[in-house]
Amino acid sequence: MPGDVVEPTRENATGAPGNPSFDGVYRTVAMDDKRYTKWGWEISPDGFVSGLQLLKEYYGDIRIYITENGLGDEDPIIDGEVCDIPRINFINDLLGGCKKAIELGVNVKGYYAWSAIDLLSWLNGFKKQYGFIYVDHDNGLARKKKASYYWYQKVIETRGSNLKS
User: Fold this and answer.
1) DSSP letter string, 29-72
2) Is 37 a domain residue?
3) What is the domain-level CATH number for residue 64?
4) How far is CA 103 from CA 52, 63, 97, 100, 150, in A?
5) Closest to 148 (Cα-Cα) out of 79, 82, 93
6) Is residue 23 part of a domain?
7) Exposure of 107 by Cβ count < 10 A (0-12 exposed, 13-18 middle, 19+ buried)?
8) What's the predicted TM-score (pTM) here?
9) Range of the domain at 87
10) Residues 6+ apart with CB under 8 A from 69
11) Is 89 helix (H, G, I), strand (E, B) or coil?
12) Using the 8-state DSSP alphabet, how is residue 18 labeled?
């Protein structure tokens, strides 16, 4: 029912204090049974699906477009290749969530990854990379396609049939 608040279960809380919010109103709490990025952001495809279902419940059968969704990470360069496997895994899981939501009747019409190219973050500067294309700040801003570029190209070509479950 809209307006009802579901309290999260706390039996898996680590008890470790999390980071305060920017406004100091709350602190994050890490859970033993959850996955997180290096920066403490929870990776929750199931939560993503639940959120999409709530949008349908609250607003009806509206068209939903997922925009600016992706993973900021430090992408290692190994043997000259940018290996951003955590980004592939993150987007794979969220696209799987989109497919599941569609199967459950949510009108998801599009998914737009963040971002095509590495960019400046208002919060982290150039500490993290965000895109499918690496920008080399030590080499005249040269561009190099990452592993995720080629993977996402296949996702588009196959309409998601190459996604891992």
Assistant:
1) EEETTSEE-TTS-EE-HHHHHHHHHHHHHHH-S--EEEEEE---
2) no
3) 3.20.20.80
4) 12, 14, 10, 5, 27
5) 82
6) no
7) middle
8) 0.82
9) 44-157
10) 91, 94, 111, 112, 113, 114
11) helix
12) E
* Domains identified in the chain, total number: 1
12 pLDDT higher than 60: no
Q: Is residue 22 part of a domain?
A: no
Find the angle CA(96)-CA(99)-CA(102) to the nearest 5 degrees: 150
Task: Tell me how far apart the alpha carbons of residues 28 and 16 are, in angstroms, rounded to a whole number.
Answer: 9
CB neighbours of 100 closer than 8 A, spacing ≥ 6? 45, 49
Structure tokens given for 125: 């500067």
102-155 pLDDT, tens digit each: 999 999 999 999 899 999 888 888 889 999 999 999 999 999 999 999 999 999
Q: Tell whether 69 is covered by a domain.
A: yes
